[in-house]
Design goal:
2 domains, globular, 5 strands, 3-stranded antiparallel sheet
Length: 157
């Protein structure tokens, strides 16, 4: 990463970015010192996403009969989560909290890593939540799902 008159050059794509940018505007790579997002800020981000997802769930529950409504609600949750992770590097809840999901190397996550991370959410859940509690006790603030997918959650500047 070279610095020229208040800018840095992204080592991945070569695009210039402001020296104080946390992420490359071209490819999304982490450019600054990494600050890992802890348990509570990630918890609040999840609450925000949960509130957002309640809206279509209620509508589906009123319009579609069971068991199709359960499958539709599940599908919306999968598309919402994996779609935002892949396209934006974060769900709206994480974006609202100034967080971003990257690979351990600082690169944006791709579709495959997003799917692995989503599967990891289920593994973190069936371990009675211990997979999520790991976030509070690991140096890089990684949950079991992060270890499974090779991801970290960082604070954007």
């Amino acid at each position: 990463m070279e610095s020229v008159a208040g800018t840095v050059t992204c080592p991945s794509c070569g695009q210039p970015a402001p020296a104080d940018a946390g992420f490359c505007p071209g490819c999304g790579r982490v450019l600054s010192a990494v600050v890992y997002a802890g348990f509570w800020i990630r918890f609040v981000a999840s609450l925000i996403d949960g509130i957002i997802l309640i809206i279509p769930s209620v509508i589906i529950g009123l319009v579609v009969e069971s068991p199709a409504n359960i499958l539709l609600q599940f599908a919306i949750g999968v598309v919402y989560t994996i779609g935002f992770w892949t396209a934006e590097g974060a769900t709206p809840g994480k974006m609202a909290m100034g967080l971003r999901i990257t690979t351990v190397e600082g690169e944006p996550i791709d579709f495959g890593k997003a799917v692995l991370r989503y599967i990891g959410y289920w593994v973190s859940t069936i371990t009675l939540g211990i997979g999520y509690l790991m976030i509070a006790f690991t140096s890089q603030k990684r949950g079991l799902h992060d270890y499974i997918a090779g991801t970290v959650v960082v604070k954007a500047r």
